[in-house]
Amino acid sequence: MVLDPEIKSQLNQYLGLMEGDVLLKVCAGDDQVSTDMLGLVDAIAGMSSRIQVEKADLPRTPSFSVNRPGEETGIVFAGIPLGHEFTSLVLALLQVSGRAPKVEQDVIDRIKSIQGEYRFETYISLSCHNCPDVVQALNLMSVLNAGISHTMIDGAAFKAEVESNNIMAVPSVFLNGEFFGGGRMTIDEILTKIGMTRDDSELFVKEPYDVLVVGGGPAGASAAIYAARKGIRTGIVADRFGGQVVDTLAIENLIGMKYTEGPKLAASLEEHVKEYNVDIMKLQRAVRLEKRDFIEVELENGAVLKSKTVILSTGARWRNIGVPGEEEFKNKGVAYCPHCDGPLYAGKRVAVVGGGNSGVEAAIDLAGIASHVTVLASSPELKADAVLQDRLYSLANVTVLVNVQTKEITGTDKVNGISYIERVTGAEKHVELEGVFVQIGLVPNTEWLGDGLERISSGEIVVDKRGATSLPGVFAGGDCTDIPYNQIVISMGSGATAALSAFDYLIRH
């Protein structure tokens, strides 16, 4: 394999940071993937005197393990870790060589204290932007604890294994041979799932804040930074940093940045917030908001945070269709990310529910992978941009159904079809297929607020031009509000507005 000059240049820089020797044990066959993998391994070894290569018998062919000389770390790459997994390979080389990981000491301590044998396997696709987070987290756990091992498995290189395990979404993680979890997971979430929870006792004794931000997406990060810069006591509590941005692939409309990807931007948001005196409380979900002497935010674990002002920036999530079969067949044929899960449907029949930009873009992407794509739109005509519609209608393996109502997603152990009703005739019809991708917009994460402040019928929080809500002292920004457009740059601006308004409120009250 001839490495791209840009990748080779990046590798040169990273390999210079290695602190010790690394041994790559390689198991290859006569197939093309093996040949390409050997080319990658040899190219890497040729770039650093610290890297040695030897042949070995591993459970899967082709694959290679990353070890310290004389010591198995348990990190294995089955397939070729390029694409979105290139960073996973680089980090594995650095961390196995002795380079300290950039994680909190609490996380390191919890990993090292894990007892027993944990054999993780993660099925991924190289186009999945959520998979690397899981792969890197489990690789790090393997480096720090001898009882933990992890194998990354490229679904495209091990199709028979994917089929036999009924894997229809990535990342799919197995632990000791049993399904462990699917979708993006942070290292904190993985540790919590195996019982290594954080000590949350300090959340129960927090002093009141001047500004408490609820939500860690672009609006929340912006609000926290603007508040902290005013020198006031600021806290931010979030289920996950980055919010929906983490699930976004290409970002090309963030002004001043020609191109970035969601996970990278989410990490940058968190690092930027950490530059300021902000009390960060992650993996915490708010369940109640109430105004008393202070404004109180109760968390799922029972802790109650108090603040003089609160900024709500809880964002939004993908909207569900809400039909029979959707919940039952999630990760069994019902998917929400065409970039991540699309490769698993190569040569299969799929449907896309949604006629807006997201739906049509998904259909166009999937048409290059699947044997046939059926688009179902509830409106009398597609709502996507004209240029996208032109491209969609030019594709021979796409059928577009407009003015239809999705009735049911059918299947037994996995999806086998979708039923819909033609709104004009009332006729019910059925399409046999293997996958359904849902792309019907967003729903705000505001259910937990109840009737405490004014929201519109679809759930968005009503705010004025200053970001103020109907409850004095409570402000809001981003996709959870009724501002007209859901864009990253708009969310950042509305978060800043809310923080400045909260500071003004504190001065005046």
Give a quick rundown of the structure.
This protein is an alpha/beta fold.
Report on this model:
This protein is of the alpha/beta class and 509 residues long. It has 3 domains: 5-193, Glutaredoxin (3-Layer(aba) Sandwich); 201-317 and 443-508, 3-Layer(bba) Sandwich (FAD/NAD(P)-binding domain), CATH 3.50.50; 334-438, 3-Layer(bba) Sandwich (FAD/NAD(P)-binding domain), CATH 3.50.50.60. The chain is built from 13 helices and 27 strands. The protein has helices spanning 5-15, 32-45, 86-96, 105-112, 131-144, 159-164, 187-193, 218-228, 262-274, 338-341, 357-367, 386-393, 488-508, and strands at residues 22-27, 51-55, 63-68, 71-78, 118-124, 148-154, 172-175, 178-182, 209-216, 234-241, 250-251, 260-261, 278-282, 286-291, 295-299, 304-312, 316-318, 334-335, 349-353, 372-376, 398-401, 404-411, 415-422, 428-432, 435-438, 442-444, 474-476. The strands form 6 sheets. The protein has an 8-stranded mixed β-sheet with strand order 2-1-3-4-6-5-7-8, with helices on one face. A hairpin with a 4-residue loop joins strand 15 and strand 16 (304-312). Helix 8 runs parallel beside helix 13 (488-508). The longest helix is centred in the last third of the chain and has 21 residues, at 488-508. The protein starts with a helix and ends with a helix. The relative contact order is 0.10. The model has no long low-confidence stretch (mean pLDDT 95). Its cofactor is FAD. Belongs to the class-II pyridine nucleotide-disulfide oxidoreductase family. One of its GO terms (molecular function) is oxidoreductase activity. Residues 124-193 form the Thioredoxin-like fold domain. Keywords: Disulfide bond, FAD, Flavoprotein, NAD, Oxidoreductase, Redox-active center.
